[in-house]
Structures are given as C-alpha cells and as structure tokens.
Amino acid sequence: MSKAILYDATMCIGCKQCEGACAQQNKLPYDDTVAAESVQSAHKYTVVLSKDDKFMRRLCMHCEKPACASVCPVGAFHKTAAGPVVYDVWKCIGCRYCMVACVFAQPKYEWQSLNPRVRKCIMCPDRIAAGKQTACAEICPTGATKFGERDELIAEAKDRLRQNPSNYFPYIYGLNEVGGTSVFILSSQKAEEYGYPSPAKIGDIPMPEYTGKVMERIPDFIPVWTLVLGGIYWVSHRRDEVAEAEAEERNGSKR
Amino acid sequence: MKFKLTFWRAVFIVIMGLGLYSSFIRYFRGLGAVSNMTDQFPWGLWIGFDCLCGVMLAAGGFCMVGAVYLFNVEKLHAVVRPAVLTAFLGYVLFIVGLLFDLGRPWYIWHQLIYMNPHSVMFEVGMCVMTYTTVLFFEFLPNVFEALNWKTPIKWIKKIYPVLIVAGILLSTLHQSSLGSLYLIMPSKLHPFWYSPALPFFFFGSAVAVGLAMTIFESTQSAKVFGRQLELPVLVTLGGALLVALWVNALLRFEDYFHRGLLRAIFKPSYEAYFLWLELTLTFVLPIAILSFKKARLSPQWLYLASIFTVLGFITNRLNIALIGFETYVGHHYVPKWTEFSITLMIIAMGFALFGVAVRYLPIFGDEHEQAVPARLPRNEVEAARALASPVLTHAGD
Q1: What is the model's pTM?
Q2: Predicted ipTM?
C-alpha cells in the first residue's frame, strides 16, 4: 500500500494554492515574490507553470527506484514503504551527487548557507503517517492534485484517459518513466512542453541499474584481481630468486 | 638560511594569498558566494579538475609501482620514489580539494558509518581513503631513511608485497569508478562523452597519464633540481606511453563505432569543437610524435608528447564534467575567479610540498636500494642476468 499523487493539468486553474500550502507545511517563506518565481529552488519545492492558458505542476516524482537514494554515498535518501522519498539531513555530507543524478533535476541546494542542505518535495511523510493527505492535495480546490493509493490512482488515470480521450494527450507520465514513479501527470499536452524530460530520452529502466551493473561486479572483481596481481608478483619475484640461485650456481661451477 | 624572493616564490605567494582570501569566502560566505555553481550546475571546476583530473594526475604512483614491483621492469626503479611521492601528495590534495567542494565537509567521516554500498561515490570514497593510507606507507621509508631508522624500514619491507598488491587493486577500482560516477546520467551527459564504457576509459586514461606524468616529472625534476636525466627510463616510458595511447584510441574508436557516432563527431558543433581539441591533444599529436623512433629517443620530444597527453586527458575529463552538461542544462558554466584561485592554490601547494620533500628526503637519493623489497638484483650486471635468465633457462631445455 504505497501512496502517490495524481496531477491532472486539465483540471488545474493555476491558483498556486499548492505552492503556498507546500511552503507553509515545510516552513518556507511564501509571498508574491516567491509566487512569481517560475523555477523550483531550495525555498520552492513545487511550482505551477503556465503556458498558453494551460498549467503544469512540477514536484519531486518520488521514483519507485530513486537515483538520489542509490547514488548517495551516505544513504541520506531513501524510498519509504509509504511512497515518499525522504532525506536525512544529518547524514548528508553535501557532495551533491543526488542533484547531478536525478533525471527530473529535483534536489535543490542551499547555496547561500554555511551548512547547506539538499531540498526537495518529500511528500509530507508526517502527514501521511498521520493518515492525512499531502498539503498540496488537501488544499487543491479543483482536485487537480489528488492524493491516494498508487494502484487506485493509476486505475483512475487510465479511466480518465478512456472516458475523455479528447481532453488529454494519451499518456500517463510517471507510470513507466525510469521504472515508474509515485507522481503521475495527465495533461492535454506532452509533459515535455513544460520542462519534464522526454520519456523517450529517460526510458523505462530504473536509474540505479545503470551503475548497479558495474557495482554488483565489484565483490567478485576484488578477490579475482587480488589473486591475479598477487600471482604476477609471485611469478616475477620467483623468477628473480631462481635467476639469483642459478647465477650463484654458475659462479660456483666456474670457480 | 636567508630567504630570497625569486620569481616563482613571488608567484607562489600571490597564489596562496588569493587562495586564502577565496577560502575565507568559501567557509564564511558559502558555496554560492565563492563559486558559479547553481542548482543546474551542481558540479563545477572543483569536481572536474581537482577531483577527476587530480586523481588521474596521481596515477603515476600505481603505474610505476606496478611496473617495477609487479612486472620487474628494473629499469624504471629510479622513478618509483618520485612517482609515489607525487601520488601521495596528489591524493592528500584531492582530499583537501574535497573539503572545499563538499557542502558539509565537517561530516565527511559519515562516509565511514553511514555506508551505502550501492553508491559509486561511496566506493570511490572508501578506495581513496584506503589507497591514501597505502601510499602513506609506501612513502614512509623515505622519512625513515632520512632519519636513519633501520627497524621500521624492515617492518615496512615485510608488508611491501601487501602494499603493492593492495595499492594496485584499489587504484584499478577507483580510477575506473570515477568514470562509473557518470554512468547514471545517460540523459544528461552529451553522447560524445556518455558511454557505458566510461569505467574503461577512465582506467585507460589513468594509465596513459600515469606514464606521461612520470616522463614530465622526471624531465622537469632534472631541470629544476639539476639532476642527470635518465634517458633509458624516459625511452622505456615513451614506448609504453605509445602503446597506452593506442589502446585508449582504439577503445574510443570502438565505442563511437558501436554507438554509431563516427559521423556525428566530425560535424561541427559546440561539443564537437571541444571533442576535436581533446582528441587532437590526447591522440593525434602524441601518437604522431611517438611514432618516430628519433622522437622516442629524444628527451625533448618525449617531454612534449607527455605534455600533450596530460593536457589532452585533462581536456577529456573537463569535457565530461563540464562541457558535456551544457546542452542539457541550456547554459554555460564558467567558474568564478575564486574557484580558479582555490584550484591554483591546491596545485601550488602540491608543487611546494614536492619541493620540500625532495629537499629533505632521499626521493632521488642513491640509497634507494635500501627500501627495495628483498630479492631484487643489486646492480646492473645482475639485473641484466636476471632479465636474460628466462631465455637462458629455456635455451637449455
């Protein structure tokens, strides 16, 4: 039973109340200046973008197999059973590999801080634990952002596409991207139009597999390579010993 | 001893002064103030140069230790010590560089308690930490000799085989893993540089640069410290470098061939210009030079070829770390002057520490036989005999 978010851009009216609720939930400043910012940042985990009278939300996708969690050397990120990908600031050493690795470019950094943290949407894990919806879903006046069971939301998204095919670009963004996420996007246009990476480009393979293929060989590589190197060392030094012994013999016989 | 202000000392003082100022900005104003890194460009010059290039430039250590102690290329014995010293300083300075780049360097020790074995960065971190320790022990005999402490040298000799094997194992792992760091970014890194073969490229370039750096360093040290240039050493290294460059070039060609990019790399584009620069410096120029026997026997040409190789692979790694991301990000990243100044400060520290070590320790000393592990031929006659002996043995069969 993992939770997820379904964002239906066709129902979004661009009121940006989700931005405000998110800021309040995460104790971030929110005023007209912040509201006007159209990029995500360390103080803006989610953003409602507008283009040609249409809207699109961006937020952490909460991948089923998150790249950020796999690359972090100290395991500061992890995917919880309930769905959210959460961050443990105490563990973080600030290498920013998560930022480079995330295909959705979600982790943002407190560049001005002297003890900077990585910031991103963490899907209100405390609220979920308390049986509540995420702050953004709760405040949404039109139901464009809907919170619920992942399976049920997938079924509902498919239903909406089936019932109103003319309203939508026929694609559930997030269903298969990088192995599936916990945030699904429905819209009348391709999500790529609003800065989401194109499904063709990022593919269906979970990101951790790209490095996993190499990493899983290391436990075998270490003993084998040690034996090879040790063997070479032994052979080349044994050769010396033999040569030395033979040289002595030769010298002895000459005398 | 009176302090004399020479040109290079003045340069050093200026670099250190600016570097200290930048360090102040880094730790008291934050990463945002000291660098041009952004959310779009979270890895900048410090990862690209200080880390990726730094570790590559220090590869001479494991290359020479491998050549001399593993493969018994006795001829190269004279360059093992300077190469190990360079490697040791290189890794220490790499860690210093990390302390600037990490956002929360005071928690760097978390690496040891919150381990994530799935992370390439974790693996690199552990290898670098262990290998620096190994290098420390490989370097230690210099100090003991300078102090004339006989017993500890004997102890280190006893563990020398372990140090040698561990050092090469760890180097193989982390030199290649630096490339694996980028395997998880297929949609971000430009296809000219993203390749599933990145770990192989990184290892291959480390070996080539290890050889080139040793040529460069030997020639440079001969000039600066007024030492006799060991031509047979350079010639051996030059030959090995030519082979290493060919292997690297073939790997790159194979990769572009299999990924169907052979035509694309010749089409003019922003990335292509940087790729051409890189390929010219890494392969075209040094391979052309080293293909001439006369050049392989000339210290000047070998020196030039080694410089091209080093600059070429530096370009290669900066292309991977910086240029390769610009199209994805949609804008250029140009490091702030304070970023440059910290990098320069770290390089200057390397040169200074090398100079100090050479002055006080028997790095180029004649006593180098002392630290040689047991059972190595003592003089050239025996060395020649040892080399010829396998042939003789078989001839008798």
Answers
A1: 0.90
A2: 0.90
